[in-house]
Amino acid sequence: MMRLANRKGFALPMSILVIAVLTAAIAAAFSSTNAEFITNAAQRSENRAYHLAETGLEQFMVLRSSVGFCDHCTDPITADSEWTRVNLPGGYADVVAVKVRPAKDSVTPAIYFIRSTGVDTMVKLSTAMSVNSEHTVGIYAKWVTMTMKVTAAWVSLSGLNKNGAGTIDGRDACGQQPDVAGAQVDKGDFTNAGDASDFYGNPPVDTSKTFAQLLAQNNIDWNAIITQNSMAPDITIPGGTFPSEADFAADTNYWPVIRVKTNGYRLPNAGRGIIVADSDFEVHGSNMWSGILLVGGKLTSDGNNTTWGATLSGLNYLLGGTPQVSTLNNPNLDGDDAAANGQKTYVYDSCSVAKASSRMRKYMAIPNSWMDNLASW
Predict the structure, then answer these.
(1) Which pLDDT score is estimated for 5?
(2) Does residue 34 lie in a domain region?
(3) What is the pTM of this model?
(4) Residue 69, exposed/middle/buried by CB under 10 A (0-12, 13-18, 19+)?
(5) What are phi and psi of 151, to 5 degrees?
(6) Residue 79 needs a FRET pair 20 to 30 A away by CA distance; which of 5, 71, 171, 309 works?
(7) What is the band of 294 on the pLDDT scale with cuts at 50, 70, 90?
(8) Which of 36-40, 214-218, 261-265 is the least confident region?
(9) How far is CA 7 from CA 4, 12, 65, 369, in A?
């Protein structure tokens, strides 16, 4: 009967083989897990870079004209390109607008290609090379040089009550545009107490339209301005500080958009630009304003002051409602009329309107021109 003899030294090689196999399996598992982790991190980083690029492009198109937003923006009509970096949570977007076709005339605007490269700074794709994920999107856009359509030196959808002396003049002080009406209100909602004030323009006072007709001719999207913040303000009150006269004197090209949310806010000093008042607004003393006044509620103007540009009040009626009108039975009913008391001078000035509304110029996307995952350079 054969007997198996013990073979000395067999257990050690077998143990080494098993350990080697297990080590290889564990190393492969770690490698596979690490590769999957890096792939998932890269995909998430790429997705973040895409959203950064898209957000940067959208902010550029909306906020491009805001003071201090664009580092290298001038006048797109004369410049071939402009660019800026939009800093965002988790990264940034480098946005460049390149002119591809100049404006042919006032009807055919210039066309630009706007490219936005989003860079995710939260994750490094390669620790050794410090590589960040990038994604580039682009769109074609027109440069729209729209300005405000002015129909009168003072348009009041809620009516106008003029007391005391003064002048409301629709003749263009700048001499660049046709004359407009001095004051424009709906039928039966205008008072010139004692006929003490002088009105000039074409016509001096326009009360030919009904309230519905006056609403129809108004081209201001007040709902977008108030509820959607379509006219991005440089300063919001309360919260911000109204610029002082020294601020305006230090920079003659400073024409800010000032959003006033405080009801009954009083103009603190002279200045220029666009004031967007959500509700009632007051001008007192000798304060002057150059540009555009957009008042949602009742505008009350006292003292000896002057406004050059264009004034619109009672704009909240664009959101609904009907203005109050006095009757024989209710002579005190008309409490929403704009009130101009004392020595008032409201003058239409197309140059002031153009400078103030230059902030309304913007890029407008051309439909079906969106491009994704562009090559970066």
Answers:
(1) 61
(2) no
(3) 0.68
(4) middle
(5) -110, -10
(6) 309
(7) very high
(8) 36-40
(9) 9, 12, 89, 80
